[in-house]
Design goal:
The complex is a heterodimer of chains A (about 350) and B (about 325).
Chain A (H helix, E strand, L loop, with lengths): L15 E14 L2 E14 L3 E5 L6 H8 L8 E10 L2 E2 L5 H7 L4 E4 L3 H4 L6 H13 L3 H14 L5 H5 L8 H13 L5 E5 L7 H18 L2 E6 L2 H7 L2 E6 L2 E7 H6 L4 H9 L3 H5 L35 H5 L5 E4 L2 E3 L4 H5 L5
Parallel strand pairs in A: 3-8, 3-9, 6-7, 7-8
Antiparallel strand pairs in A: 1-2, 1-4, 4-5, 9-10, 10-12, 11-12
Helix pairs in contact in A: 4-5, 4-7, 5-7, 7-8
Chain B lengths: L9 E14 L4 E16 L4 E5 L6 H8 L7 E6 L2 E2 L5 H8 L2 E4 L13 H11 L5 H14 L16 H13 L5 E5 L7 H18 L2 E6 L2 H7 L2 E6 L2 E7 H6 L4 H9 L39 H5 L5 E4 L2 E3 L5
Parallel strand pairs in B: 3-8, 3-9, 6-7, 7-8
Antiparallel strand pairs in B: 1-2, 1-4, 4-5, 9-10, 10-12, 11-12
Helix pairs in contact in B: 3-4, 3-5, 4-5, 5-6
The chains are: A alpha/beta (about 350), B alpha/beta (about 325).
Chain lengths: ~350, ~325
């Protein structure tokens, strides 16, 4: 086992609200053992947006679900690690105590607001529910607060909308209502799992603006799960890149985009068509492909999971999994050839 | 860059598709969804026209109406010089060979009970192009061309990944050697690393076979990459139509401007002034009067609320439907 004692966030400076250490979530299936999340560590600070990016099956959503202990069990199980929220390890809480945390200290918004809203309950009552449960508000007070929350997420005519059912709202409005619900109890951490993926691009821009604005107002730490590097670049301060259940790179957003230190990150960036290039009159040539496909988690190669698709892979990459280490201050990557390919740390 | 030259492969003019909205016990028609409301364009040989817009703008319906998978309410469709608008099923069949479609979801568009080889062979059988060993060889050649192995012909769709399934869909579309392929969000369901593989494959095939594409997508960056010309749709109408370079460097319609500025740029070093339009796309059952976009347009004046702007050629080759240009 490779030593992964600390992560980029190891410098436990103040402001860390959620600290995740060595998280392991495995699925026990008929096809065998799936290490969906394999030794993942990170920390999020107050008011910060941390993005977790990767392609389908990389473990980003299961990581998010593990944090609030909503991994479908069986077949899934959190088998190791710690998730500390203000000194309490959430993985050690009993279910009753955990219910007091979900929606109160940590809340989550999902990709498809229609499936995560209750279709037979008005929007106002759904937002108020958490306030009644967690903060002991009366129904009338909860409803009044729900209307305030709808106003906060800039839904026009909030009093009327609070009386509406989810199907009466558009997709963008539903996602706003979800955000209102998630923020109603003023949580320390908001997990947003592909919050704009189901939305049209003009609506996506509105929702991203809203999340960033509210975060500034309320100081919430946001964990943004996404596959869209554009969304990451516009919202996140720090980025974690996952591949086949593990972290392969972590860096401040500006540095990651300027110079990735892992061939997978670099390949991802080169494979997306970019609008800003044509504006700079760069003629679009062939897109750079990452050959092959993401390996099945039941059948991971022995060495680096990315090696079979990596154009720089050498024998060592196929034999041993590279250590996840700090390549330069604040920049972590798991690659044997990172220094050689992207330059070693200066100073 | 190929222009829509002398003889376009596809010519669509004044295309309309209105779906009736039925209600009540007697299923009386109480209104219409104006899904496509007067759309015209043409595509030349070896050319890609990108059709972009947000959900509900009618772009998918345009694709289906061109293939006559939905019956157009009005307008005409000429494929390779022949008017196919009024043709009956049997008359349409020889023309169908010339146009094929690739769908978004490679999971639901392949028959799970047929082997991949049979799926690709089916159109060749239906049109009696080949049989027996010749058919199998033809299918094998198609498999290899789209980057699948011959040995995979006997596997079933569930044994393939999303990207590979999309390759099967492409092989099936290529089987009859069509002139026109309509791609309805063909890469939207794929992971980014796989998306690049499929886009490159489509562009290579176009070069080899002089294929024409109608490429329908909501993803502007993908459309920009693959298209020669682009038409932007909003609520059933084309609001802007020009070559891609002009569209991306000098968009004239406020909606195009808003769309472009809403696309997140994967580079934190680029700080842009964004035009974030407010509100939602109105319902196509009751589209707003005048310019459909006036309810969200930051520049709208009184005239926009009354008069519907026609699509005009404001600069040679650059068509815009806006009173202010």
């Amino acid at each position: 086992m490779v030593v992964q004692s600390a992560s980029a966030s190891a410098a436990l400076d103040d402001g860390v609200v959620l600290d995740v250490r060595g998280l392991k979530t495995y699925f026990y299936t008929r096809q065998g053992l799936l290490k969906a999340v394999d030794d993942v560590s990170f920390a999020v600070r107050k008011g910060e947006t941390l993005a977790i990016v990767g392609e389908s099956g990389c473990g980003k959503s299961i990581t998010a679900l593990s944090l609030i202990r909503l991994v479908p069990t069986p077949p899934g199980r959190i088998v190791g690690g710690a998730v500390s929220l203000a000194g309490t390890d959430l993985l050690r809480l009993d279910e009753k105590a955990m219910r007091g945390v979900r929606g109160n200290d940590i809340s989550m918004i999902f990709q498809e607001p229609m499936t995560s809203l209750n279709p037979v309950m008005t929007i106002g009552r759904q937002i108020g529910e958490a306030l009644i449960l967690h903060q002991g508000l009366t129904r009338a007070a909860a409803l009044a607060r729900a209307v305030e929350m709808l106003q906060l997420v800039r839904i026009p005519e909030p009093e009327q909308r609070a009386r509406d059912y989810p199907h009466q709202l558009s997709g963008g409005m539903r996602q706003r209502a979800m955000i209102a619900m998630a923020l109603a109890c003023n949580p320390k951490v908001l997990i947003a799992d592909e919050p704009t993926t189901a939305l049209d691009v003009t609506i996506q821009a509105q929702i991203l603006d809203l999340i960033v604005d509210l975060q500034r107002q309320l100081g919430t730490a946001v964990i943004l799960i996404t596959h869209d590097l554009g969304v990451v670049a516009e919202t996140a301060q720090r980025v974690i890149v996952m591949y086949a259940g593990r972290k392969v790179e972590e860096a401040p957003a500006s540095e990651l985009f300027a110079r990735p230190l892992h061939p997978y990150t670099s390949g991802l960036m080169a494979s997306i068509p970019r609008l800003d290039l044509i504006r700079g009159h760069v003629e679009a040539g062939r897109l750079q492909e990452i050959p092959g496909m993401v390996p099945a988690l039941t059948d991971l190669p022995t060495g680096c999971a990315f090696a079979p698709r990596c154009q720089f892979a050498v024998d060592r990459c196929h034999a041993d999994y590279p250590p996840y280490e700090e390549k330069r201050p604040g920049r972590w990557a798991a690659c044997w050839r990172s220094d050689e390919l992207y330059g070693a740390a200066h100073a | 860059m190929p222009e829509a030259a002398a003889k376009p492969v596809l010519e669509v003019s004044g295309l309309k598709k209105h779906f009736p909205v039925r209600k009540g016990l007697l299923r009386r028609t109480v209104g219409h969804v104006f899904a496509v409301d007067g759309v015209s364009f043409s595509i030349g040989e070896g050319e890609t026209l990108g059709l972009v817009g947000e959900s509900g703008c009618g772009k998918t319906t345009v694709g289906r109406a061109v293939l006559r998978l939905v019956e157009p309410t009005d307008g005409s469709i000429r494929l390779d010089g022949a008017d196919i608008t009024g043709l009956r099923k049997a008359e349409l069949r020889p023309h169908r060979r010339k146009m094929q479609i690739i769908f978004q979801d490679p999971f639901s568009s392949l028959n799970p009970r047929m082997s991949a080889g049979d799926i690709v062979a089916e159109p060749l059988g239906v049109h009696r192009v080949a049989r027996g060993k010749a058919l199998r060889d033809e299918v094998a050649a198609l498999f290899e061309r789209v980057g699948l192995r011959r040995a995979q012909m006997d596997a079933y769709p569930h044994q393939f990944s999303g990207g590979q399934r999309q390759r099967i869909g492409i092989a099936r579309a290529l089987a009859l050697n069509p002139k026109l392929i309509i791609g309805d969000e063909p890469v939207s369901a794929l992971d980014v690393s796989i998306q690049a593989q499929v886009i490159n494959l489509l562009m290579d095939l176009q070069r080899e076979r002089r294929l024409s594409y109608l490429f329908i997508s909501h993803n502007l960056a993908v459309v920009e990459h693959i298209s020669h010309r682009i038409a932007v749709m909003y609520l059933g109408r084309i609001v802007e139509h020009t070559d891609k370079k002009t569209l991306f460097t000098n968009p004239l319609h406020p909606y195009t401007e808003a769309l472009l500025s809403a696309v997140p740029v994967p580079d934190p070093a680029i700080k842009r002034k964004k035009l974030v339009v407010q509100g939602d796309v109105p319902s196509p059952v009751r589209p707003p009067p005048g310019c459909h976009f006036h309810t969200r347009c930051p520049y709208a004046v009184d005239r926009c609320r009354i008069d519907s702007p026609a699509l005009r050629e404001v600069v040679p080759g650059h068509h815009v439907a806006c009173h202010l240009r």
